[in-house]
Design a protein that fits this description.
Helix 6 (159-177) links the parallel strand 4 (146-153) and strand 5 (184-190). The chain has helices at 3-30, 33-37, 57-64, 67-90, 114-126, 159-177, and strands at residues 99-102, 110-113, 131-139, 146-153, 184-190. It has three domains: 1-54, no CATH class; 64-94; 99-190, GMP Synthetase, Chain A, domain 3. Helix 5 runs antiparallel to helix 6 (159-177). The chain is built from six helices and five strands. The radius of gyration is 29 Å and the shape is elongated. The two termini are 37 Å apart. The protein has 199 residues and is α+β, with helices and mostly antiparallel strands.
C-alpha cells in the first residue's frame, strides 16, 4: 500500500471518528436520551437536554466583544484552509495508464499497459543488493519511451555497484520489450540510519 494511501485512510478514519462521536453526543442531547435512559452525560458537555445550545447566548456575547475573538477565529479558519489545501496538493496525481509498443515489425508489435512493464522493472530493482526501495516510471512517446528510476539505498551501500546492477536491470527490460534503446534517468537517495543505542 502506498504511503499516501495509508496516511489518507488513517486521517480520514480519525476525522470520521471525531465527527461521529460529536454527532452522537449532539443527537443524545437533542433527543433527550440521557434522561430517558438515565445516563450521565460527559462532564462539562453543554448539550444534555433538548433545550440546551452548544454555545450559550451569554458566552456568545462575551466572546464576540473581546478583541482577540475575531482575530483568533479568522486565524484558525485560515490555518484549517491552508492545511486542507496542503493535503490536497500533496496527493499524488492519478496518472492514466498509457500503452507502450513492444516489438519491432508492425505485424509483430504488441501494445501493453505501461503499468505492467513498470511493475516488472520495479520488482526487478527491488531485488538488487543494497536497494531498500525502488520506483520506476516510463515517460515519452510509446514508441520511444524513457525510464525514470528512483532508488533509496541502504546505509553503507556502494552506489557504483548499485548503478551497475541497475544498468543490467534496465537492459533486461529493454531487451524483453524489444526496444532499440531505453534512455534512463536515475535518482539516488540513501535511507536514514536508525537510532543507535550507546552502551
Amino acid at each position: 500500500m502506498r504511503e499516501h494511501t495509508t496516511t489518507n485512510r488513517v486521517l480520514l478514519a480519525l476525522l470520521g471518528l471525531v465527527l461521529l462521536g460529536g454527532g452522537l453526543l449532539v443527537l443524545a442531547g437533542g433527543a433527550d436520551i440521557y434522561r430517558r435512559l438515565r445516563l450521565t452525560p460527559p462532564g462539562g458537555w453543554p448539550l444534555t437536554t433538548p433545550h440546551n445550545v452548544l454555545i450559550p447566548g451569554a458566552d456568545q456575547i462575551r466572546w464576540t466583544v473581546q478583541d482577540w475573538w475575531w482575530l483568533s477565529a479568522i486565524a484558525a479558519l485560515t490555518l484549517l484552509m491552508l492545511l486542507a489545501l496542503w493535503w490536497l496538493l500533496s496527493q499524488p496525481r492519478r496518472r492514466h495508464s498509457r500503452r507502450l509498443s513492444v516489438g519491432h515489425a508492425p505485424r509483430g508489435t504488441v501494445t501493453v499497459n505501461d503499468h505492467a512493464l513498470r511493475d516488472a522493472l520495479t520488482t526487478d530493482l527491488d531485488t538488487l543488493p543494497g536497494v531498500r526501495r525502488a520506483r520506476a516510471r516510463f515517460l515519452g512517446p510509446p514508441t520511444r519511451p524513457r525510464a525514470r528510476i528512483g532508488l533509496v539505498l541502504n546505509p553503507g551501500s556502494t552506489p557504483g555497484h548499485v548503478l551497475e546492477d541497475l544498468r543490467d536491470a534496465a537492459e533486461r527490460a529493454r531487451q524483453s520489450a524489444g526496444w532499440d534503446r531505453l534512455p534512463t534517468d536515475v535518482r539516488l537517495g540513501v535511507a536514514r540510519h536508525g537510532p543507535h543505542r550507546a552502551e
